[in-house]
Amino acid sequence: MGSILRTADAAGVHGVIIPKHRSVGLTSTVAKTSAGAIERVPVAKVTNLVNTVNDLKDRGVWVFGTDMQGTDYRRWNAEGASALIIGSEGKGISPLLKKQVDEMLTIPMIGNIQSLNASVAAGLLMYQGFNSRHPL
């Protein structure tokens, strides 16, 4: 979580939403790993991610999820208000939450590993969003 917050700060992400239950807390270890980003990136803990996604969509935010089956993330144009859901490394995003997203994104892999560490996947996707907003 600390690495995700650190990358979020570097990429200009406005905030991070985490589930209140079954997620890492904002511990001293997370704070240390974040290199101070925990003080600059707002973190909202919510009780229901599906409701939160629906609220975001009602406010005009496009919501993207991550999955092994989806659009290649390198084709993602993240201009405009966007939210990104990073699933757990083992289980991914719940089927109910998947139904709420506007589009699923995938990170292509050609090796034997079938998933990346959540913070690495989040970093790749946050910087794709950054690149969409700040072209060379």
Produce the secondary structure layout.
Elements: H1 2-11, E1 16-19, H2 28-33, E2 43-46, H3 49-58, E3 62-72, E4 82-85, H4 95-98, E5 103-106, H5 118-133
Parallel strand pairs: 1-2, 3-4, 3-5
So, CATH architecture of the largest domain? 3-Layer(aba) Sandwich
Find the CATH topology of the largest domain: Alpha/beta knot
Shape: globular
| E-strand count | 5
The proportion of strand residues reads 15-25%
Poorly predicted runs of 5 or more residues? none
CATH class of the largest domain: Alpha Beta
Helix content: 25-40%
- Determine the number of helices (DSSP H or I, runs of at least 4 residues): 5
- SSE class: alpha/beta
How is the main sheet built? 3 strands, parallel
Could you describe the 3D structure shown?
By secondary structure, this protein is an alpha/beta fold. The protein has helices at 2-11, 28-33, 49-58, 95-98, 118-133, and strands spanning 16-19, 43-46, 62-72, 82-85, 103-106. It is globular. A three-stranded parallel beta sheet has the order 4-3-5. The chain has a two-stranded parallel sheet with strand order 1-2. Helix 2 (28-33) links the parallel strand 1 and strand 2 (43-46). The chain has two domains: 1-46, no CATH class; 48-136, Alpha/beta knot, CATH 3.40.1280.10. Helix 1 (2-11) packs parallel to helix 5 (118-133). The longest helix has 16 residues, at 118-133.
